[in-house]
Amino acid sequence: MPHSDFLTAFRAGLQDGTLPPGLTAIDPAETGQRFAVYRNNVAVGLSEALAARFPVIRRLVGEEFFAALARGFIRDDRPASPVIAEWGEGFADFLRGFAPLVAHPYMADVARLEHARGRAFHAADAMPVAPGDLAACAPDRLILGLHPSVQVLRFGHAAISVWLANQPDGPPVRDHARAETALILRDPAFQVHVVGIAEADAALIEALQQGRPLADAARCALRIDPDHSAQHILVRLMSGGAITSAQEEAP
Amino acid sequence: MSHLPARPGVGFKSKHFADIARNPGPVGFFEVHAENYMGAGGLPHAQLTALRADHPLSVHGVGLSIGGHKGLDEDHLARLKTLCDRYQPDSFSEHLAWSSHGAEYLNDLLPLPYTEQTLQIVADHVDRVQEVLGRQMLLENPATYVLFEQSTIPEPEFMASVADRTGCGLLLDVNNVFVSCANHRRDPLDYLAEFRLDLVAEIHLGGHDQEDLPSGPLLIDSHGAPVADPVWALFRDIIARTGPLPTLVEWDNDVPEWSVLAAEAARADAILRERGQSLAAQ
After folding, report:
1. Distance between CA B85 and CA B87 in Å, rounded?
2. Does residue A164 sit at the B interface (CB-CB below 8 Å)?
3. Which residue of B has its CA nearest to A80?
4. Domains (ranges, CATH) in chain A?
């Protein structure tokens, strides 16, 4: 039998329990129980890897429910490479379509938040600029580069509040149905932060991410909120080490 | 070549970073799972850079699927090369097992029959790894729970043949020997008598769990418990024959406090030193 056929049969058996061809044991009657070790290792290993990526979802639904959830998810979505940290992007969509969770529509948003935190944790490194670098540039033409960990996420439900409530000493959730917008960033000490921001702040950050000058980005924010002040969010980015370059746009 | 010191090593876990910086105890090297350091940046690389500056390093792959489909995952091999180029580890090792099927990763070390066909595939894969990485790799014996009717080559002979054909070294996981031999109801000393100990460049020691089948115990390689006494006894027996070797204590699940791992490393250290002294006295 070609090795590839053996592997395909073994792989199919992991899913449906059929014993692969030639599989045996010192007491052949026990072959099934022994094969079950591999089936269990694969299922539990992937389930635990998923739980490590989505600790708040696991906390919210409990260990037993999460195991069932993971089994369902893993049936159709397994890691595409041995770099498990890149896996799980589809988990939020899976939760949205998972019938038993239909009364908890914020779950999918919390999963998106946790996936983004994982991305921020592993994002490329970049050194923050010194405050003096900003002062040296003409504000109208100032282009700020943001840290690779910086992400803006919009949630239809209170994903940030739910996530915070599930951290040590976190405040209780007031309103699960409240729409929220998150800034996610990793600071120079490698802490990943989740910050609730206004829609105008989000517009400003996204304009900066597109490479537009600061003055231009601030105008984007003002279109959403005529009273918006860019200073607050810039201080937040700066203090988190999230501004990693400052240069003047070519005139 | 593997250049690890013939001392105890410990599998590095992020949560032990500060403890290790304060006092690495008897630990002479650290080993990391390659796949945990394949992100672009952040804490994993910052810690590994600092660890590497102070200690010899072994990079241990768990995802290359050397026993899998013909033709390795070249993307993954490129990631391994990037990692090895960056950290210049003193050793790179992988498993005699498979873990991927097509484009999906199954996250477990799965068994393969030992035949002329699989020997050729594994040897080709090891050749390719050594070609891309530009270094010798070590191949580790697996813990197994089943046998295959189609197998025609005993595992120690299979591993020796891969080494002969490719020039790779061997990583002898003593817990895996104990687990597999218990599961297949054979004497681990017979297995070790067939094993080419002269090709062994690193030892692994780890813990296992036990289940019970009608015919007797089924041991599960869990890496979540202290090294068992009979595994220590086998280790002592091996070191008495080989002399001191780089010896890793593995603990990957339910990872305990650093002091517990340091104590396991100290136990390995005592056995390595005992043998080192008796060699010096000769």
Report:
1. 6
2. no
3. B104
4. 3-90 (no CATH), 122-248 (3.90.930)
| Yes or no, beta carbons of A26 and B185 under 8 Å apart | yes
CA B223 to centroid of chain Cα atoms: 12
Residues constituting chain B: 282
pLDDT tens for each residue of A101-122: 999 999 999 999 999 999 999 9
- Which ipTM score applies to this complex? 0.95
| Residue B244 maps to a domain | yes
Q: What does the pLDDT average to over A29-58?
A: 96
Instruction: Please report the pLDDT score of residue B228 as a whole number.
Output: 98
The answer to whether residue B3 is domain-embedded is no
- According to DSSP, the β-strands at B247-249 and B8-11 are parallel
Decide if A23 and B145 are in contact by the 8 Å CB cutoff.
no
From the candidates B105, B152, B176, which should be mutated to test the interface with A, based on the most A CB atoms within 10 A? B105
Could you tell me if A31 and A24 are in contact, meaning their C-beta atoms sit under 8 angstroms apart?
A: yes
Give the pLDDT confidence of B53-70 residue by residue, as tens digits: 999 999 999 999 999 999
Buried b (16+ CB within 10 A) or exposed e, B56-70: bbbbbbbbbbbbbbe
Cβ contacts from A onto B, under 8 A: 141
Q: Do B184 and A23 touch (CB under 8 A)?
A: no
Domain of B249, in residue numbers: 8-281
Q: Work out the angle at residue A158's Cα, subtended by the Cα atoms of residues B43 and A234, and round it to the nearest 5 degrees.
A: 55
In a domain, B1, yes or no: no
In angstroms, what is the C-alpha Rg of chain A? 24
Chain A partners of B35 at a C-beta cutoff of 8 Å?
A: 82-84
Residue A184, strand partner residues: A151, A194
Phi, psi for residue A132 in degrees, rounded to 5: -60, -30
**In terms of CA atoms, which chain B residue is nearest residue A78?**
B104
CB within 8 Å of chain B, chain A residues 92-121: 121
Tally of CB atoms within 10 A around B202: 26
Are B149 and A41 within 8 A, CB to CB?
Answer: no
Residue B63: CATH number of its domain: 3.20.20.150
**Which of A42, A67, A9 is CA-nearest to residue B145?**
A42
**Domain total for chain B?**
1
> pLDDT averaged over chain A?
95
B264 assigned to some structural domain: yes
Q: In degrees, to the nearest 5, what angle opens at C-alpha B140 toward C-alphas B55 and B198?
A: 85
Q: Is A29 exposed, middle or buried (0-12, 13-18, 19+ CB in 10 A)?
A: exposed
Cβ-nearest to A84 among B98, B101, B107: B107
B94 to chain A, closest Cα gap in Å: 13
**Residue B108 · residue A41 · CB < 8 Å:** yes
- Residues of chain B with C-beta less than 8 angstroms from the C-beta of A11: 101, 106
b/e burial code for range B129-141 (CB count within 10 A of at least 16 → b): bbeebebbbbbbb
**How far is it, in rounded angstroms, from Cα A51 to Cα A44?**
10
